[in-house]
Design brief:
Shape: globular
Radius of gyration: 18 Å
Helix content: 10-25%
Strand content: 25-35%
CATH architecture: 4-Layer Sandwich
GO molecular function: aminopeptidase activity
CATH class: Alpha Beta
Mean pLDDT: 95
Pfam families: Peptidase_S58
InterPro entries: ArgJ-like_dom_sf, Peptidase_S58_DmpA
Low-confidence stretches: none
Family: Belongs to the peptidase S58 family.
CATH topology: L-amino peptidase D-ALA esterase/amidase
Number of domains: 1
CATH superfamily: L-amino peptidase D-ALA esterase/amidase
Order of helices and strands: EEEEHEEEHEEEEEEEHEHEEH
Keywords: Aminopeptidase, Hydrolase, Protease
Structural class: alpha+beta
Number of strands: 17
């Protein structure tokens, strides 16, 4: 799919990284915050009633709120190329950002602006890499049940395509409190006991038992849906809400007070399709991307 580039910087030693999306011709976007502990930057410009029409970059980062500084690297990259919102005194690159908390994974460091700049230099059109790369490097899942082991998360990708060429493509950084389930509702990654069996976070809570102090392992799932169909910001806001159903299909429990879950929905094309159909496509793409993020998951 044309209209954007994607690049990643992975710091395996520190256990963190950054993923960037470049929309050098501008794109329309909106978002929906699903969790209660988000770490975000420059979201207000994506609200339907705000006047700036386009974004030119998007950053997903590790490092919690410290990782939001990586957006400066993308702004620098775009500014050097005179890409951004036009003003009488030069362009202003509009680059929203969101971050996961991965400081407890290996080293308590965040990706830097320079690393985000390097991710821009490495960016390629329509790239769909997945695994423990970029912002998904230090992601983990299954952190709710006491005396259990977590499993690795990561960055996953998937797309849903119609016969007429309309595409909904999803990227998901999965760093959830809960478990990840497949389409048959079986757990495929999450909290595990020492014997290898899944603890089942949802069943554990429904049994009346208390979770551990989850802020010790803070979390968050970040999702980006990009489509080649044309929509206004208000429509993208509603599509983002519909697409959030894909997160709830794949993760249990979901949208907790310990997760900063957020979903971006971005239009980078001119094809025509209904808002309802796109929301349905987006939800399925998100569901598949989350499962893809943990396809190589291991106990950590």
């Amino acid at each position: 799919m044309d209209g954007y580039k994607t690049g990643h910087y992975t710091n395996q030693k520190a256990g963190t990284g950054v993923s960037v999306f470049l929309f050098e011709n501008g794109a329309t976007g909106s978002y929906w915050i699903c969790g209660s502990a988000p770490a975000t930057h420059e979201l207000a410009v994506l609200d339907p009633d705000n006047s700036v029409p386009h974004l030119y970059g998007l950053v997903l980062a590790g490092g919690s709120a410290y990782g939001l500084h990586a957006a400066l690297g993308v702004m620098t990259y775009l500014g050097e190329r005179r890409i951004g919102h036009p003003t009488p005194h030069g362009v202003v690159p509009i680059v929203p950002a969101a971050a996961i908390y991965d400081l407890s994974y290996q080293l308590a460091v965040a990706p830097t602006a320079e690393e985000a700049y390097q991710a821009c230099l490495a960016a390629e059109s329509g790239r769909m890499q997945s695994g423990r790369i970029g912002a998904g490097t230090g992601a983990t899942v299954g952190k709710l049940v006491p005396q259990t082991l977590s499993m690795s998360g990561g960055l996953g990708t998937a797309e849903v395509r119609l016969p007429d060429g309309v595409i909904a493509r999803a990227y998901a950084v999965v760093n959830a409190v809960g478990d990840v389930r497949d389409s048959a509702r079986g757990i495929i990654a999450g909290a595990r006991y020492s014997d290898g069996s899944f603890a089942n976070c949802e069943r554990y809570l429904l049994s009346g038992q208390a979770e551990i102090d989850l802020f010790r392992h803070a979390n968050t799932t970040l999702v980006v849906v990009i489509t080649n169909a044309r929509f206004h910001k208000s429509e993208l806001k509603r599509i983002a809400k519909m697409a959030a159903a894909g997160i709830s299909r794949a993760i249990t429990p979901v949208f907790t007070q310990f997760d900063g879950d957020i979903l971006f929905c971005i239009s980078a094309g001119d094809k025509q399709i209904s808002e309802l159909t796109m929301g349905t496509m987006a939800a399925e793409a998100v569901n598949l991307a989350i499962m893809d993020a943990v396809k190589g998951s291991e106990v950590i």
